Amino acid sequence: MKVEICSDVVCPFCYIGKRKFENALKDFAHRDEVEVVWHSFQLDPNFQPTPGESTHEALAKKKGVSTDEARNMGAYVTKAAAEVGLHYDFDRTIPANTFLAHQLIHLGAHHGRQDATKERLMAAYYLEGQNVGDLETLVKLGAEVGLDATEIREALKAGMYANAVRLDEYQAQQINVRGVPFFVFEDKYAVSGAQPSELFAEVLEKVYDEFKPAKPAPVLVADGPACGPEGCD
């Protein structure tokens, strides 16, 4: 069963949604049959950070509110994150354009390390105050999850996965994704937002029951006298 998730590295509810989905998946009896695929989605593809500007100031500018109001928004999200064991620190976060970070996630997928790369980047941004828009920071973070530092640097400099990021974003537009996180189950059912783990659990069960693989017929390794509807051999 495939679950595809559109999200951004610097989307606070994307990290919260990741945890809530993971909590549901952890208790799902068929979790080993679930393939999770992350898709790129930039909340602000054209964002250019201003040196020295805090996340509170950047948010205030974007929303047209005061810095204090922006801090209150951050406090609300910080409380929601704490409920799933994530300790956000908006005073340390560094505003960044995530185009390079998404390319690193695609490189991670190429080496079977997509989820680990996604997790490392989100933790670096929200919990550690690292700059996920900086090339050398991304090289370091990618190496921490087992990727080759030289390959990371060369791939990001050359934009090897730039088109993969753009394709993800184009495909998100085609299915009318307007906000993230956005979860698609088996190309048929969708869940938008950081929903409760209980809801994710219900959807996993429903989708699995509907799309569960047919039990394969046993391989015949010996054939001998037997009885059937028409009688016995």
TrEMBL record:
<feature type="domain" description="DSBA-like thioredoxin">
    <location>
        <begin position="3"/>
        <end position="204"/>
    </location>
</feature>
<dbReference type="InterPro" id="IPR001853">
    <property type="entry name" value="DSBA-like_thioredoxin_dom"/>
</dbReference>
<dbReference type="InterPro" id="IPR036249">
    <property type="entry name" value="Thioredoxin-like_sf"/>
</dbReference>
<dbReference type="Pfam" id="PF01323">
    <property type="entry name" value="DSBA"/>
</dbReference>
<protein>
    <submittedName>
        <fullName>DsbA family oxidoreductase</fullName>
    </submittedName>
</protein>
